[in-house]
Fold this protein.
Amino acid sequence: MDEALSWAEDAGRRGDVPVGAVLLGPDGSVLGAGANERELTGDPTAHAEVLAIRRAAARLAAAGGSSGWRLEDCTLVVTLEPCTMCAGAIVAARVGRLVFGAFDPKAGAVSSLWDVVRDPRLNHRVHVVPGVRADACAELLRRFFDARR
């Protein structure tokens, strides 16, 4: 989570909502990472989770993996509970485990409003570990938004 928080802090310094994500391989190595880049790139889909997944899949494909997009043995660590778009991307990428920090009562799609990643109607379910370093993750967001009010 420390590395995800570092990515989140970088996003906040750039003016993006401070959310960071790190995708770990089965051996714990970093396969992909990212922070929100919506303001930086003008891309509404440039959420930290999506960027980390894209980068990990590209790295695995470049290494010769024919199924680089299947991340079943991987863990995604993110500072904020994923939204519906990111939860859908996590399911589509077959991420095996999701670890997140702060809950998102306004848009959270893993526990707060919905539970997309564990919905039995979908073709894949994700093991979820919520609330890891939740206070630190929430404080980063609180400081960011307080500075803008």
